[in-house]
């Protein structure tokens, strides 16, 4: 082969030049595409930044427009308020409105005073009526037993037995004693509270700092139930357990008397029971005479019984005496039970222990129907109930033998036989619903307080200022509303509150009227002879008639007169153009002044239009 032909043939060991050129072109294109993509990203980022800048500028422009508009509106409102003040200075003071507002101020005070008196002057409370109901609905007692060891009468004798009495000792609060041996006996009513507040720190435990200063934490004592008694000479404590005859009470007496029955007691104290039932216990007591009333010789539990409690100390009970059955028992310090039986009495000139959860007070009035059965000194009382340790647990807790505790018994409240039956049932029913009277009085007082605040104070002040041509800035752009809105709001709220109170008063009338008639009949017929119950029913009639009925009637009269004045003032407002929908408040000259003032503001209209156009241009196109 010739050299020329050799040169024409491509070398076998070198790459194809065309393929190399093609690969080079492809690489160059990728580089070019990459540069274009980068450039596009840069352009897009620049456009985005430019768009954000434009949006911020547009937002700033919108905020500027809004600020200018608010500033302009505020200025216009201020101009309108000044103009309104000039106009109102020319108007005379509305004297009729001033008299109207003064009248309602006096009315609101009168209504509030009547409601407060009606609620405050109630001398009888629900608890007083409940005390009467609890007594006459108590079941009679037909047997009494005693026990030394088991203080739970139900487990000892059966479910029908319960303790003859239970005294609820309320327990004490926690405290921190920093008194350092203060002489408690030197305290008086005037300094005892200060002493225990400063030196005893009621209701808190001692901190480490106080403990380091010789203070001591006084732990609280839980409430306790006392039901044990003794002979007063350190004899063995015992518990008296009474069995009550279920279903036989003073209310059932009338029914029992209409069928085959047995009459117990005499005269007005007669009491009927079914013929197959023994008469209930009507007398109990303690004695040292084992042959008292020959009860041991008679040995007849249908008449009575007597048993030895140790050391020649006897307890007895007798049935069918001349008095009504005994149904209630109380133990109290001193020799009297408070008129409100749940109140705990305390001896004269004695101060109750200040850590007690509930404090005792000396009774101002007592329940004479409770009769003393037995008396022991205070140390015997705490010993028999195994709580003498309280004097060690509680600093200054004084258990003193010079104070006596007494056991009392009470019969049914004497209720005339002619008043038993249907009338008696009505009395008990009214007692269960007496709380409706006090609820209605509380609701009425709440509505009256709202009436006084809203009408007597708020609207009265606003109405008086309006009648004196005070310019309210909130109504500057609508001067014709100066009288309309305030007057209509006052009338609306007043009528609404009056309607609410009238409804409450009418409901109270319905509730009170029925009760008042029944209680009046009780007093007129002389149904009750017990001094405490007589005082209760007499005062209840007075409360319902004088305070509740009369005061509510006075409120209704006041509201009736008020309604007439409302109609008069509404008519006056219509005639004067002050009522909503009536003629314009301002005369022609006043309108001209408003018009002149409005021309001065016409120059701002172009600015407003330009702001609207600018806002439309700056809004982004969808």
Provide key terms for this protein.
alpha+beta, three-stranded antiparallel β-sheet, 17 helices, disordered C terminus, transmembrane helix, membrane, Transmembrane protein, transmembrane
Describe the protein in words.
There is one protein chain. This protein has 17 helices and 15 strands. The protein is an alpha+beta fold and 622 residues long. Among the domains are: 201 residues, no CATH class; 227 residues, no CATH class. The strands form six sheets. It has a three-stranded antiparallel beta sheet with strand order 1-7-2. A three-stranded antiparallel beta sheet has the order 10-12-11, with no helix packed on it. Strands 13-15-14 form a three-stranded antiparallel beta sheet. The longest helix has 74 residues.
Question: How are the elements arranged and paired?
Answer:
Elements lengths: L2 H6 L8 H74 L4 H26 L5 H11 L4 E7 L5 H5 L3 E3 L3 E3 L5 E3 L14 H9 L7 H4 L4 E3 L5 E3 L12 E6 L8 H5 L3 E4 L6 E4 L6 E7 L7 H4 L5 E5 L5 E6 L6 E8 L37 E7 H7 L5 H4 L10 E8 L10 H12 L1 H33 L13 H45 L5 H46 L11 H12 L4 H15 L4
Antiparallel strand pairs: 1-7, 2-7, 3-6, 4-5, 8-9, 10-12, 11-12, 13-15, 14-15
Helix pairs in contact: 2-16, 2-17, 3-13, 3-15, 12-14, 13-14, 14-15
Radius of gyration: 47 Å
Helix content: 40-55%
The number of distinct helices, counting runs of at least 4 residues, comes to 17
Task: Output the structural class.
Answer: alpha+beta
N-to-C span: 80 Å
User: What form results from the Cα inertia axes?
Assistant: extended
Main β-sheet: number of strands, strand sense, barrel status? 3 strands, antiparallel
**Which sequence of strands runs across the widest sheet?**
1-7-2
Mean pLDDT: 78
How many β-strand stretches? 15
Return residue spans where pLDDT drops below 50 for at least 5 consecutive residues: 1-15, 577-622
Beta percentage is: 5-15%
